[in-house]
């Protein structure tokens, strides 16, 4: 799951990035509202973590702009403000949940998972296709009830393909989900990853396979 973090406290931001990474999230972090808004124009995020006290704009205004642009990602608000009026304003403008500072990292991860499990959101508990079963909470893949190991990126790519089983997933959608705005992804990164995942599915005896539609994307089906 790719998450956008907009938090101007650099030490806290790095703590969140490291902490959520341990829970299986990929996080793009920015310190200003404008940089965060710019990121949402370049990448589709599964969720957004937003600090209200940003140096260039109030976080409430950021929420308003995101919703006016029809950005549907759930927004988890981080704030040191404990007034009821601020909480109500954040929810009324389109925020989905609040978390007060300071907080425990495991609670932040749990709240994100809860938001993503809501109807229509990106996270469901267990995905099944043929003899594959993927528990997205435990990040565990089973074939015929036997747990098999695959890399975190292979797991993320397979999750997206399983969520859209029988439908074409574009290369751009995979790039956004897997790499976000990171600069370490070369132009062939998705092709290499899918090739490796396809072979891995064959090796573990999966009765579904990934089909490449040149110039369009990838399709997972039994």
Q: How would you characterize this protein structure?
A:
The chain is an alpha/beta fold. The protein folds into 2 domains: 2-116, Rossmann fold (3-Layer(aba) Sandwich), CATH 3.40.50; 126-221, Winged helix-like DNA-binding domain superfamily/Winged helix DNA-binding domain (Arc Repressor Mutant, subunit A, Orthogonal Bundle), CATH 1.10.10. It is built from 8 helices and 12 strands. The protein has helices at 10-22, 33-42, 59-68, 84-92, 105-116, 152-163, 171-179, 189-203; strands at residues 2-6, 26-30, 47-51, 75-79, 97-100, 126-129, 132-135, 140-143, 146-148, 168-170, 209-213, 217-221. It has a 5-stranded parallel β-sheet with strand order 2-1-3-4-5, with helices on both faces. The longest helix is centred in the C-terminal third of the chain and has 15 residues, at 189-203. 31% of the residues are buried. The mean pLDDT is 87.
Terminal Cα span: 24 Å
Percent of sequence in beta strands: 15-25%
The CATH superfamily of the largest domain is known as: Response regulator
Q: Which percent bin holds the helix content?
A: 40-55%
CATH architecture of the largest domain: 3-Layer(aba) Sandwich
What fold name goes in the CATH topology slot of the largest domain? Rossmann fold
Mean model confidence by pLDDT = 87
Strand order of the largest sheet: 2-1-3-4-5
Could you list the spans in which at least 5 consecutive residues all have pLDDT below 50? Answer: none
Counting copies of identical and different chains, the oligomeric state is single chain
The ordered string of helix (H) and strand (E) elements is EHEHEHEHEHEEEEHEHHEE
Biggest pleated-sheet summary: 5 strands, parallel
What is the CATH first-level class name of the largest domain? Alpha Beta
Give the beta-strand count: 12
How many structurally independent domains? Answer: 2
Structural class: alpha/beta
Radius of gyration over alpha carbons? Answer: 18 Å
Number of discrete helical segments: 8
Shape: elongated
């Amino acid at each position: 799951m790719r998450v956008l973090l907009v938090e101007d406290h650099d030490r806290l931001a790095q703590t969140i990035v490291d902490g959520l990474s341990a829970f299986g999230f990929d996080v793009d972090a920015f310190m200003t509202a404008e940089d965060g808004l710019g990121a949402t124009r370049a990448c589709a995020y599964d969720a957004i973590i937003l600090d209200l006290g940003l140096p260039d704009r109030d976080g409430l205004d950021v929420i308003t702009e995101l919703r006016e642009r029809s950005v549907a990602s759930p927004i988890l608000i981080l704030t040191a403000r404990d007034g009821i009026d601020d909480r109500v304003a954040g929810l009324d403008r389109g925020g989905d949940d609040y978390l007060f500072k300071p907080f425990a990292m495991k609670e932040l991860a749990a709240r994100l998972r809860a938001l993503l499990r809501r109807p229509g959101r990106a996270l469901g508990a267990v995905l099944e296709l043929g003899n594959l079963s993927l528990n997205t909470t435990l990040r565990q893949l089973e074939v015929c009830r036997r747990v098999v190991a695959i890399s975190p990126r292979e797991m993320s790519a397979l999750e997206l393909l399983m969520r859209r089983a029988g439908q074409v997933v574009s290369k751009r959608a995979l790039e956004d989900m897997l790499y976000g705005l990171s600069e370490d992804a070369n132009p062939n990164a998705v092709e290499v990853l899918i090739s490796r995942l396809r072979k891995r599915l064959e090796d573990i005896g999966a009765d579904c396979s990934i089909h490449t539609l040149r110039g369009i994307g990838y399709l997972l089906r039994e």
